[in-house]
């Protein structure tokens, strides 16, 4: 198991980043690749999860160990694969995810791409009561977090990148088009576009 990768961010696209470690480029899939744009050509440490299947080996990367652990727990739920796990974590609000599971809020969970009522119910059955150890320090204000209702960004190259990233997470063009008008009031970095768009999509 590769615990982490430390190196320079060499390349970013809507699905993954490439980290240069002593001349070797590691392709690492992350929930929001553009979150690392501010580190382009800088050295960072990414905590990784190595996914091995008969037909593929892939690295998934996260900013901290707690987020990686949450991703691993999501993969244990029947019906959730790596792409689905990334889409769930991409909103950047793990406290709301855990709260929804603990409160059996299926209505919130089914808003994620690829999560239907059956998968939402399975998430609750498999994970309820089993996430507090993962999230206690990571989310000290769990269950006291208020839903954000903010608006986002402007038509720009960054917004276009954000839209491509949303598509790669599995959101449909029709869903994305609904929030674009709300993303044209501020100019923000791509990672913030993605975060705000996801907040709107999950309302």
From TrEMBL:
<feature type="domain" description="Helix-hairpin-helix DNA-binding motif class 1">
    <location>
        <begin position="107"/>
        <end position="126"/>
    </location>
</feature>
<keyword id="KW-0234">DNA repair</keyword>
<feature type="region of interest" description="Domain III">
    <location>
        <begin position="159"/>
        <end position="203"/>
    </location>
</feature>
<dbReference type="InterPro" id="IPR036267">
    <property type="entry name" value="RuvA_C_sf"/>
</dbReference>
<comment type="function">
    <text>The RuvA-RuvB-RuvC complex processes Holliday junction (HJ) DNA during genetic recombination and DNA repair, while the RuvA-RuvB complex plays an important role in the rescue of blocked DNA replication forks via replication fork reversal (RFR). RuvA specifically binds to HJ cruciform DNA, conferring on it an open structure. The RuvB hexamer acts as an ATP-dependent pump, pulling dsDNA into and through the RuvAB complex. HJ branch migration allows RuvC to scan DNA until it finds its consensus sequence, where it cleaves and resolves the cruciform DNA.</text>
</comment>
<dbReference type="GO" id="GO:0048476">
    <property type="term" value="C:Holliday junction resolvase complex"/>
</dbReference>
<keyword id="KW-0378">Hydrolase</keyword>
<dbReference type="GO" id="GO:0000400">
    <property type="term" value="F:four-way junction DNA binding"/>
</dbReference>
<keyword id="KW-0238">DNA-binding</keyword>
<dbReference type="Pfam" id="PF01330">
    <property type="entry name" value="RuvA_N"/>
</dbReference>
<comment type="similarity">
    <text>Belongs to the RuvA family.</text>
</comment>
<dbReference type="GO" id="GO:0006281">
    <property type="term" value="P:DNA repair"/>
</dbReference>
<dbReference type="GO" id="GO:0009379">
    <property type="term" value="C:Holliday junction helicase complex"/>
</dbReference>
<dbReference type="GO" id="GO:0016787">
    <property type="term" value="F:hydrolase activity"/>
</dbReference>
<dbReference type="GO" id="GO:0009378">
    <property type="term" value="F:four-way junction helicase activity"/>
</dbReference>
<dbReference type="Pfam" id="PF14520">
    <property type="entry name" value="HHH_5"/>
</dbReference>
<dbReference type="InterPro" id="IPR003583">
    <property type="entry name" value="Hlx-hairpin-Hlx_DNA-bd_motif"/>
</dbReference>
<comment type="subunit">
    <text>Homotetramer. Forms an RuvA(8)-RuvB(12)-Holliday junction (HJ) complex. HJ DNA is sandwiched between 2 RuvA tetramers; dsDNA enters through RuvA and exits via RuvB. An RuvB hexamer assembles on each DNA strand where it exits the tetramer. Each RuvB hexamer is contacted by two RuvA subunits (via domain III) on 2 adjacent RuvB subunits; this complex drives branch migration. In the full resolvosome a probable DNA-RuvA(4)-RuvB(12)-RuvC(2) complex forms which resolves the HJ.</text>
</comment>
<keyword id="KW-0227">DNA damage</keyword>
<dbReference type="InterPro" id="IPR013849">
    <property type="entry name" value="DNA_helicase_Holl-junc_RuvA_I"/>
</dbReference>
<dbReference type="GO" id="GO:0005524">
    <property type="term" value="F:ATP binding"/>
</dbReference>
<keyword id="KW-0233">DNA recombination</keyword>
<dbReference type="Pfam" id="PF07499">
    <property type="entry name" value="RuvA_C"/>
</dbReference>
<keyword id="KW-0963">Cytoplasm</keyword>
<dbReference type="InterPro" id="IPR010994">
    <property type="entry name" value="RuvA_2-like"/>
</dbReference>
<feature type="domain" description="Helix-hairpin-helix DNA-binding motif class 1">
    <location>
        <begin position="72"/>
        <end position="91"/>
    </location>
</feature>
<protein>
    <recommendedName>
        <fullName>Holliday junction branch migration complex subunit RuvA</fullName>
    </recommendedName>
</protein>
<dbReference type="GO" id="GO:0006310">
    <property type="term" value="P:DNA recombination"/>
</dbReference>
<dbReference type="InterPro" id="IPR012340">
    <property type="entry name" value="NA-bd_OB-fold"/>
</dbReference>
<dbReference type="GO" id="GO:0005737">
    <property type="term" value="C:cytoplasm"/>
</dbReference>
<dbReference type="InterPro" id="IPR011114">
    <property type="entry name" value="RuvA_C"/>
</dbReference>
<dbReference type="InterPro" id="IPR000085">
    <property type="entry name" value="RuvA"/>
</dbReference>
């Amino acid at each position: 198991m590769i615990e982490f990768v430390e190196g320079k961010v060499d390349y970013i696209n809507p699905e993954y980043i490439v980290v240069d470690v002593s001349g070797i480029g590691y392709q690492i899939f992350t929930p929001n690749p553009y979150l690392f744009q501010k580190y382009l050509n800088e050295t960072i440490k990414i905590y990784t999860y190595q996914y091995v299947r008969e037909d593929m080996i892939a690295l998934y990367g996260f900013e901290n160990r707690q987020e990686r652990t949450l991703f691993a727990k999501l993969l244990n739920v029947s019906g959730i694969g790596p792409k689905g796990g990334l889409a769930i974590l991409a909103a950047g609000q793990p406290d709301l995810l855990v709260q929804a599971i603990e409160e059996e809020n299926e209505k919130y969970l089914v808003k994620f791409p690829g999560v239907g009522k059956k998968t939402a119910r399975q998430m609750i059955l498999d994970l309820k009561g089993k996430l507090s150890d993962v999230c206690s320090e990571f989310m000290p204000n769990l269950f006291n977090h208020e839903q954000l209702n903010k608006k986002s960004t402007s038509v720009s190259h960054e917004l276009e990148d954000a839209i491509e990233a949303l598509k790669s997470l599995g959101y449909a063009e029709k869903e994305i088009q609904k929030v674009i008008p709300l993303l044209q009031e501020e100019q923000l970095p791509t990672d913030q576009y993605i975060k705000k768009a996801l907040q709107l999509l999950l309302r």
